[in-house]
Every structure is written in structure tokens, then in C-alpha cells.
Amino acid sequence: MRAQPLLSRRLGTVGLMASAAPSRRLRVGVLGTASIADKICWAAEQTSTCAIVAVASRSHERARRWADERGIEFAFGSYGELLSSGAVDAVYIALPCALHAEWGCLAAGKGLHVLCEKPLAASAAEARALVEGCKRSGVLLMDGQMWPHHPRTGDMLGALSGLGGVRRATCCLSFKAPHEFWTSNIRADAALEPLGCLGDLGWYCAAALDAFLAPGGELPARVFCHIDWSGDRARQLDSPARGGEELTGAAAKCRGVPISAHAMLIYASGATGSFHCGFDAARRDFFEAHCSEGVLRCDDWVHPQELDTFGTSLVQLRASPPPQLPAHFRVRRAGQVAWEERQAEACWQEVRMIERFVSVALSARGEPDTAVDASLPQAAEAEVLRWGDAACRVQRILEACLASENHGAFDLT
């Protein structure tokens, strides 16, 4: 296997596709029936390494109906029943983030690997408890980001290694939420998703800055962040001056969830990173790294060509699979005027994520899938640990963003 840059090894984006059938399939159970789970079910169907065999909901009737509609064998009327069933080797947690740590820890306690939707937890303390629980049980914990598993990410990391040190990086991820979002989507519910846009969109941004600016896993020394809150925005729109009613009591004190955030991260090395995320502005999906010897830019770093299948049902995905689109980025070296266009291998990044999850999980159980990545048996423990550690750093960065609202700046050191 050819040598990889340090960052590329850390993200594990090279050599993911299997050239032969693995020793066996990883049996995965889904906790929750959220729409995002359809994308994961479809991705698993595109592999020879993973099978979604069970689903759990708080209602057995709902779980059975959801399973039957998707051809899934087992349905459980509680999450605990699935964990104790012996029917699965791993779980995919598609629950509100307020429940992630609880059920992730319980799954790990049963010896099950955990693929968890982001954000990892509602707080850094919960995230650390989940990471430590998985470490104690010797199971894999991976957050559900897909862009790190796309071959383009490895190509970008390799390109940056030839441009000198990254001095500054910036990224943005946003969309304009429709009116019904605020009344029916859990991302606008402070009880279920207290991190709002920070946990949903800022997670990608903080993870990118962590990967590109801190190859050794260093946390930023200081974080600044400005946040707009849904409750504050509602009070502005419904104020008596605008013809609304004066809010009193608990309603007046409720800040809701973050709907827009602009953060700056300062590292001990002198490198800086910034990001913007929000539910309140037109769609933007952008990353740029400014290096000592050039600039790298990617205009669709989370969703190549801005193709996002979120909300598409499994029936629709099966009938009309999304295209495997080429993914691009640009490089301009110091002293040059023209940008150099680079193209990465076309693929389904959600499928690559599933393949990586299965590969690492099987290696952790002493069943390395050597057809996928021959280096895993020699580095299985480090490979298992690094995903949870990276996710925990992202959680700490986002919590520092929240804390900086009260302190003007927050020192992570």
C-alpha cells in the first residue's frame, strides 16, 4: 500500500473499495425511524459488506411498518430490545442528539459498534462519556459525516501537503429554511437538538478545520463566536413595534436554538480558522485553505456538485439512484494567476462511509477485511480510536463557540 500523507492517514480516505468479497457482512440495526435513515439503508444496500437487518422505535407498530416498507427482517418496540436481541453487530443511531449519548453508551455496553448521526451528543461531557464508553468496550464509534470518506478529501489533503503549511482556512455551510421548518423540524426544537445550526451544519465546518488545521489533533487555543438565536429572532419579528404581542414569562426567556453562527478559531501554531453556518441564508457549501505556497478552494466540499439526497425515501433511491458525480477542487500556486482544476474519483460518498465503518468494525473484532485495506490489521486499535477522538474534539469546539457568547472569547487550553 503506497504511503499516504499524515492527514490522509488520519481521515482514512484512501483505498476504501473492496476488490473481493469480505469474510462476512456486518449486521446493523437502526435506532429510530428518521428520514435520514433511508439514505443509510440505501448506502448499505450498495455494499457487499453491510446489511441493515433491524429497526427499533418507541412503537412496535411503527417499527414493524417501517421495516416492512423497506424489507428489513427484525422490528422492535423499544431501543433496548434491539440492543439485547443478538440480531446485530452494530447500530446506526438516527435519534435526536439529546438521546445519542445514552443509547450509544448502552449499545457499546452490549459490545455493539456505533455509527452515530451528528452532533455526537448534546454536550462535550456527554460526548466524552460516549467516547470513553466505546473505548472501554473496544468498539468503534464513528460520526455520520460522509465528506471525509470521499476520495476527494484525500486528494485535497495531498494537494495541501505540496502547498506548504496551512495558515488560514475558512468554510461555510448554510441553507434558507422554509417556514414549516420552524414548526415541524426537530433541528428547531431546543429540547431535542439544542445545538441548532451549530450541531447540524457547524459540525461539518468544525470537523473540516480540525482536519486541515490540526493534523496532530490539537484543539484551538481560543475560540470566538457570534450566534443568532431563533427565540431572539422571533421576538424581533413579533415585537409590539411590529404589531406583535409582548412575550412574557418562559416564552420571553426562551432563546430557542442557534440559527446562525460565525466563529473564529485561533491555534497555538498561529494558524487561524473561521466558519459560518446557518439556517437563515441561501445555500452555500464552500471551503478554502490559504497556505504559505498557494491556495486551495472547493465550492461543494460537503455535497459534491451540491447533490444531497437528504429527505429522499428509500423507495425513491432504489428506483432512481443518484448519479456518481465527479468531484472537483481548485489549486492556485503562489505567483500564479490561473487556477488549476483537479478532479477526484466519482463515487457515492455515503457508500464509502459505510464501507469504512464496516472495514474498521470487522478489524476491531479480529476479522480484518484485507481486501478493503491491508493496513488495518496492523493498526486496528488506532483506527478504531481516532474516529471517536476526532468527533469529541469537534464537540468541544462547538461547545466553546457557545461558551464564548458569555465570555467574549473562550480558551480551550
Spell out the blueprint of helices and strands.
Blueprint: H1 6-11, E1 26-31, H2 36-45, E2 50-56, H3 60-70, E3 74-76, H4 79-84, E4 90-93, H5 100-109, E5 113-116, H6 124-137, E6 141-143, H7 151-161, E7 166-176, H8 181-184, H9 196-213, E8 222-229, H10 230-237, H11 249-253, E9 258-266, E10 272-278, E11 280-291, E12 294-298, H12 314-319, E13 327-333, E14 340-344, H13 349-364, H14 380-407, E15 410-411
Parallel strand pairs: 1-2, 1-4, 2-3, 4-5, 5-6, 7-10
Antiparallel strand pairs: 7-11, 8-9, 8-15, 9-10, 11-12, 12-13, 13-14
Describe this structure in words.
- The chain has 413 residues and is of the alpha/beta class.
- The protein has helices spanning 6-11, 36-45, 60-70, 79-84, 100-109, 124-137, 151-161, 181-184, 196-213, 230-237, 249-253, 314-319, 349-364, 380-407, and strands at 26-31, 50-56, 74-76, 90-93, 113-116, 141-143, 166-176, 222-229, 258-266, 272-278, 280-291, 294-298, 327-333, 340-344, 410-411.
- Helix 2 (36-45) packs across helix 13.
- The radius of gyration is 21 Å and the shape is globular.
- The two termini are 37 Å apart.
- Residues 1-22, 235-254 and 368-378 have low confidence and may be disordered.
Which short descriptors sum up this protein?
alpha/beta; about 35% helix; single chain; globular; about 425 residues; about 25% strand; disordered N terminus; nine-stranded mixed β-sheet
SS class: alpha/beta
Q: Percent of residues in beta strands?
A: 15-25%
In N-to-C order, the SSE pattern is HEHEHEHEHEHEHEHHEHHEEEEHEEHHE
Report the principal-axis shape: globular
The poorly predicted ranges are 1-22, 235-254, 368-378
The radius of gyration is 21 Å
Portion in helices: 25-40%
* Integer average pLDDT: 86
Largest sheet: 9 strands, mixed
Query: How many alpha or pi helices?
Result: 14
Q: Provide the spatial order of strands within the biggest beta sheet.
A: 14-13-12-11-7-10-9-8-15
Oligomer: single chain
